[in-house]
Structures are given as C-alpha cells and as structure tokens.
Amino acid sequence: MNHRPDDEKWMREALAWAWKGKGTTSPRPSVGAVLVREGQIIGGGHTQRGDGTSHAEIMALREATQNGADARGATAYVTLEPCSHWATTPPCCDALIEAGVARVVVGVHDPNPLVAGRGIERMRAAGIEVTQGVLERECARAQDDFLHHIVHHTPFVTLKSAVSLDGKIALKSGQSRWITGEKSRQRAHLMRHHSDAVLVGIETVLSDDPSLGVRLEGDWKQPARIVLDSRGRLPLGAQIWDGAPQLIVATTNAESQNIERLRDKGATVLELINEPQNSDVEWRHLLAELYALKIFSILIEGGARVAGSAVAAGIVQKAAFFVAPMLIGEGKSALSGFEIGDLGLAPRLRDVQIEELGGDVLVEGYF
Fold first, then answer.
1. Lowest mean pLDDT across 47-51, 118-122, 128-132, 321-325
2. Which residues in the chain belong to E strands, given as ranges?
3. Could you count the other beta carbons within 10 Å of the beta carbon of residue 119?
4. Structure confidence at residue 348 (pLDDT)
5. What angle do CA 293, 299, 303 make, to 5 degrees?
6. Are the C-beta atoms of residues 20 and 46 closer than 8 Å to each other?
7. Any residues with CB less than 8 A from the CB of 9 and at least 6 apart, and which?
8. 218 Ramachandran zone, left/alpha/beta (phi>0; psi -120 to 50)
C-alpha cells in the first residue's frame, strides 16, 4: 500500500542494520532503521544491547544529528513497527513525531500486545504518512524469534544439522568431522551467536565433547548451553562448561548426588517430571522452564535422537540443514525415532531459503 519505487532498496539498508544487532538484544527484537532524505541516507542504526539502551529509530536519529542533518521531512525505514509504549525506553513513535519525520515505512507489524498497531495509529494521527509491509517476509525472518516468543510465550526453536546428500550426519562408526566445509561451520557459529542457547543431548557431549561456543574472530555473544541429561551424567571436565555464560542441565531420573555435583560446579539443574515409562525429557515442560529462565531462542544441534524427538513433539519452528555434496550410505540418520506413515502427513517447510556456502547448500525454512 502506497509503496514507492525505492522503498525496497532503503528497507534492505534497514535490514542490514537489523542483522548487525541480531543475537545481542534478546528479549527485545533486533530492529534496523535508516533515515532517508533527498535520496541519501542521513542516519542509521539498530537496537542496542541490554535493557534501557536505545532502539533502532533513536540510533538513526542520533546519527543524523551527529552528521549535521535535519530529520525534518525525511523518510524513516524501520524493519518493525515503532513501539508506542514506555518499557525501558520512551516510545519510538513519539521520537519520530517530535523529529518531524514526514513518512515512515514499516517492514512488519509488531504483535506485542503493548504495541499491536498503536505505533502506526499514533504516527498517522500526528500527520505522518505510514506505509506498511515493505519486504515484510524478509523483515519477519530477521526477527522471527521475537515474533514467536512475544505471542506464544515459549522459546523459538531452530533445528540445525549438517548432513550428506543422503541425509546422514555421521558414519556408522560415529565419525562426523567434517561433513560440511569451513563456510558452513562459520555460519553455524553465527547461528549460535544469534541464539540465546544451544541445546544437545548427553550422548553428543560424551561422544564429541563439544564446547558449543562461538569461535569467530571479533566480539561475539556466547550462548547459554543446555544439555538433556536424564541421569545427570555430564562430566565436570567437559568442554561444554568452558566459556558458557549459563549451563542448564535438564534431568528426569538423576540421583541426588549427581544433581548436587552439577549444581556445585555452577550448573542450573532442572528436575523435570516425565511419564513413568519414558526417561526422555518432556519437551513442552522443558520449554516452559527455559522460558521462565529468559531463554527465548534455542538452537538444537543434536544428536539424531534429540532432533527426532523434537520434530516428533512438534516444538521446532525452523529447520536449517547444511547439505554437503557427498554420499555416506550406511550411516547415522539426521532424525532418529521420528517416523511417519503417510507422505501426506510429512512436515513440510514453508518460506524456504537456499544458499550456497563454499560448495555446501544451506536449506532453511519454517514448519
């Protein structure tokens, strides 16, 4: 509605800002914004890290002022509807009104009940022209975790896997390093940075001893680590402890001495109740406990049993599979314990994105 020829061009600039802040703003969304006047960007920015810090619109207005530019009469491109309420910062829609911005272009509507269209209504009432839905799908992808957790009050869950063409994550011997190449592994580290927490099962820890940290050059946020460990077997010397801002161990049948040794080491231990005949963690109970711990986005990295269980439970919102151009044959499947009896019932991804990464192919989509 009322889209202009250059709207997508400038919204892509705002999206670039949004991705710069991704992973550092939870539970707030990473929003990007640019101010455009007479075909030139006069200011840009993204939501800052931590409560009480500036939102994207404020950063863009601040940069315009530093550049000696006047925002009056400019157009603001914002990936998410400007907020209309006081939380830890003043309403962004009021800041745009006070700055004299003439037009605001919004990527995606904010479903937060405290906003939910009120920001747009307030700006229109002040005489600002508002255009909605420019690159809406792209903007939604950039803040998919926020758009989910703010509505459903449960963490946004992404399942990540590195597989061969025939869907194997390892040889029968367990060897899996490395199926995919360096560029894929770097992207996987970026996904960790984007997530509040990375989750694996205890068998992955015992067999691979991963750290699950972000190993990229520069200043990157380290995610919390979550281990599904029904009996509390996590070794105190495992690498997963190293550099973890928080280590969460979910147990169901652990003996008290195992729980105490993990807590003494500094872990947060969740003692979950499950079905008597099943020692596995009940996913929805676990996600409720993690949400209470302010874990709003989770990257599941394996192994096959954990991945299959999560898909079977219907708690995964997004899949990200790195596919390598190799055949393994007899090996370990990406999903264990997950089976369907009818192709018509097979989970199918929507909004699928495909990207080549140094010979591998990354396939992403939403359930």
1. 47-51
2. 32-37, 40-46, 75-80, 103-108, 129-132, 156-164, 168-171, 197-201, 224-228, 247-251, 268-271, 297-302, 318-324, 331-333, 350-357, 360-366
3. 29
4. 92
5. 115
6. yes
7. none
8. left
Cα 22 to its chain centre, rounded Å, is 8
Q: With contact defined as beta carbons under 8 Å apart, do 96 and 128 qualify? A: yes
* pTM flag (> 0.90): yes
CA dist 225 and 217 (Å) reads: 20
Q: Cβ–Cβ contacts within 10 Å for residue 79, how many?
A: 32
Give the CA angle between residues 230, 288, 155 to the nearest 5°.
105
- Residue 184 DSSP code: H
Name residue 227's beta-bridge partners: 200, 249
pLDDT-wise least confident of 11-15, 98-102, 244-248, 296-300: 98-102
**3-state SS string for 13-73:** HHHHHHHHHCCCCCCCCCCEEEEEECCEEEEEEECCCCCCCCCHHHHHHHHHHHCCCCCCC
Q: Is residue 218 classed as helix, strand or coil in its secondary structure?
A: coil
Residues annotated as catalytic are 57
| C-alpha–C-alpha distance, residues 336 and 333, integer Å | 6
- Segment 78-93 mean pLDDT: 80
% of the chain surpassing 90 pLDDT: 67
pLDDT digits (tens, 9 = 90+) for 330-342: 888 889 888 888 8
Question: What count of other Cβ atoms lies within 10 Å of the Cβ of residue 343?
Answer: 7
Q: Measuring CA to CA, which residue among 228, 155, 217, 168 is closest to residue 189?
A: 217
